[in-house]
Predict the 3D structure of the following.
Amino acid sequence: MAIATEPHPCFFYGSLMEPKVLNSVTRPGPEADLFTVRASIQGYIRYPYHNEPYPGMVASQDDHEAVEGLLVFGHTMMDRFRLDQFEGSEYTRRLLPVKVLDPVPGKYNVQGQYQRLSAGDLVQAYVYVFTGPREHLDTSRPWDFEAFQREHLAIWMQTSPDFTQRMLDCTQQA
């Protein structure tokens, strides 16, 4: 039996770029057929959330500014529901154009043409844009993914059983 997947990939620019975090949130099963590729989004900038290890991405005043991240193809509707719960009320899921930076096999092309996507092609993707109060972000410095992995990942993964329980509760309610 085929699993229904979302018609659009998701673009991740923060903690969800780390496979351990993404897999703990979506818990893809052995039947999952996910494909991940480097990507970027133009006209945005990401900043650290005050006193937290994750960022928020907001529109930039400079249209040439870009945020690099990962584009993930193949999530199910339940995965997206879990992602919505994880992101919370200060992040809004929007469908935005994202540029793929590496080729994508045709079977993942959401355009319905089943032609591969080439580096530089644009694809509509779900993006969780920060829409909370701007003062919640530390706009004095950019967010650093490598620092997140080095300094916060291990502790964050160990101290989030409450999140895991919330995800299980949401899944049972759905």
Notes: DSSP finds five helices and seven strands in the chain. Residues 161-173 form the longest helix (13 residues).
